[in-house]
Amino acid sequence: MGWWDSVLGRSKPAQPDLDQLFGIPGAAVTLATAADLTPTGVGAVCFRAAEGGAFAQVSADVQALLDADQGPPVERVDDSYGYTWLVVRRDPDDVAGLVTDLHAVNSTLVDNGFGPALLCSLVAFGDSRGRRVGLVYLFKRGTFYPFAPQGEPRRDSALELQVRGLLGDDLKVEQDLSRWFPVWGAPGL
After folding, report:
1. Is the dihedral of CA 113, 80, 172, 98 positive or negative?
2. What residues contact 124, with CB distance under 8 A and at least 6 apart?
3. What single-letter DSSP state applies at residue 93?
4. DSSP SS3 for 176
């Protein structure tokens, strides 16, 4: 950022720290013991798909990379908001493997110049009462927040705040609640 940018009030956006995703397995232990929320085995990366051959090739490479892992195939879902989700499914007990897959997707997109297209990553959790919570990682902020839908357009704010309180030592939680955007229709939730 140059002098002129600071005069005009422009700021340099925070660079995502994708390694923060590796804090999710520890957070999963905390959620299981303190709130009876366990991983569902579903995770997803959300991005705005770009047009052109280069992006199509990177997207195909990501899908082939994860499919070669002998796990279930990666599912591509386009939502009604114009975003694309690459959905990864793993055994619910393999949170570390799920996070590694999500990190691989994100890293491949960033390394090929598509980092600005990334919106978020999400790992889904649930309990025996049917409650669902997604731990959402915001790339542009480098922070996590919980999202607990109760059917669009309602969300379980009390559960979200409870999860925030539990995970303060495990993850870098977004402190600005206005940035806890709902991700309606997110895969796994």
Report:
1. negative
2. 39, 40, 41, 42, 43, 132, 133, 134, 186, 187, 188, 189
3. T
4. coil
Residue that is written with structure tokens 């990177």 in the block: 58
Q: Which helix (H) or strand (E) holds 105?
A: helix 95-111
Q: Any idea how long the chain is?
A: 189
First to last CA, the chain: 39
Q: Average of pLDDT values for 160-167?
A: 96
Q: pLDDT digit string (tens) for 39-66? A: 999 999 999 877 777 777 877 777 777 7
129 Cβ contact partners less than 8 Å away, ≥ 6 residues apart = none
Identity (one letter) of the amino acid at 10?
R
| Tokens describing residue 56 | 């199509």
- For residue 95, the tally of other CB atoms under 10 A from its CB is 23
Amino acid letter for position 112:
N
**Sign of the C-alpha dihedral computed for residues 167, 169, 170 and 175 taken in this order:** positive
Reading the block at residue 77, the tokens are 């879902």
Enumerate the domain spans of the chain.
17-179
